[in-house]
Write the C-alpha cells for this entry.
Amino acid sequence: MRVLLSGGAGYIGAHTALALIEAGHHVIVVDDLSNSSAEAIVRVQQLSGVAVPLLVADVRDEPALRAFVQAHSPVDAVIHFAGAKAVGESVADPIRYYDVNLGSAIAVLKVMAAERISAIVFSSSATVYGQSESLPLSESSPTGIDLANPYGKTKRIIEAILEDAASADPGLAAIALRYFNPVGAHPSGLIGEDPSGVPNNLMPYVARVAVGALERVGIFGDDYDTPDGTGQRDYIHVLDLAAGHVAALEHARAGYDVFNLGTGVPVSVLELIAAFERAAGRSIPTEVLGRRPGDVAVSYCDPSKAGRVLDWIASRTIDDACRDTWRWQSRNPAGYGSAADRRAAASGSQLGAGAA
Ligand code: NAD
Ligand code: UDP
C-alpha cells in the first residue's frame, strides 16, 4: 500500500518509513521540519535505496496536502505523527499545542475524507493514562482529559475525534497507538533521535552526557517506592515501535481501536544508565536531584492486546536500545547537524525525486 506519513522526518516517523519500505510498502512524507531535518529522509533513502517524496509543509495547509496526495494517488493510508511533543512547553504555551496538535489531526482527517483515504494510524501516548493507580496499564485503564498537561490532553482529545469519525463513517479504520517510552536508533547508526537543545527525555540526555556534550545526568528522585528508588518506565526500541505501525496498518479494519505499544517490562533510571555504561564502555556521571513535578513513579504496559490482535510483540531489550543509541550518538555527535541544513537548503521544498 501507499502510506502518507505526516511528521515522517521525525524520530519515530523516519524509522517507520524505513520499516514500511522494508515491508514492501510505498511511503510519502509531509513534514514542516519544525522539529526535524530533511537529512533524516535522505538517510532513509540511503538505507532503503528507494526514493521517498517529501513535501515540506505544515499539514494544516490543506490545499498543499491535497495537491501532494493527488500527485501520488492512490494513497491508501495515513500515519499521523506530526505534532508538538514537549510536555513542559505545552504547559507554558497551551494554545499553540491545541492549535498545532488538534489542527493537524483535523486537517489530516479532512484531507483523507476529500481524497477517500480510509485508514489512519495515530501517534498517541501512555501519557493519556495520567496518574493511574493500577499497573500494568491496559487499554481499558482509566484515561481522561483531566490530565496534568495540555500535550496529554491533545492526545486524548484526538483519540476521541478519531473514535467519533470512525463511528460516523463506517468505511474508516482509525487506530490509536499509545506509545510507552520510545528509545534506541537504527542499528546502522544513520538515523536516530535528534532533539533540539537540551533533551527532556532520559535516554537522549544520557547519550549526550556519554559523548561529553553535557556534564552529568540529573536523576529526578531516588526516593520513589520502587526497587532502587528511581522512576521506572517501559522503554520500547524504536525499531519495535516502527514494526508496530506496520502491523497496525496491515491489520486495520473499519472502526476505531487502540493499542498499547510497549514491552511490559519496567526499567529504572539507574538500570538504564547502567545499561548505557555497558554499551558505551564508559562511566556516566550522575547527580541525584529532586523529583520532577508531574512525574509518576512507575509506568509500564500490558502489551498483550497488540500481541493478540496485531500479532506484534516487542523483541528488543534495553541493552539493544542503549547499544544502538550509543552507535547513533557517537557517530553523529551533533545529530543530523549542519550538513543536513545545507543539504536541505540546496534541495528546495520537494525532495526525493530519485535522490538517494
Ligand atoms: P518528532 O518531533 O521527532 O516528530 C514529529 C515530526 O512532526 C517532526 O518531524 C516535526 O517537524 C513534524 N511536525 C510537527 N508539527 C507539524 C506540522 N504542523 N506539520 C507538519 N509537520 C509537523 O517526534 P517523535 O518522537 O518522532 O514523535 C512522533 C509522534 O509520536 C508525535 O505525535 C509525538 O507526540 C508522539 N509520541 C512521541 C513519544 C516520544 O517519546 N518520542 C511518546 C509518545 C508519543
Ligand atoms: N529522568 C531523569 N533525568 C532526566 C530525564 C528523565 O531522572 O534528565 C527520569 C524521569 O523522572 C522518569 C524517567 O527518567 O522517571 C523517564 O523520563 P522521560 O522524560 O524520558 O519519560 P517520561 O517521564 O515522559 O515517561
Q: What stands out?
A: The longest strand covers residues 119-125. Residues 348-356 have pLDDT under 50 and may be disordered. The longest helix spans residues 94-114.
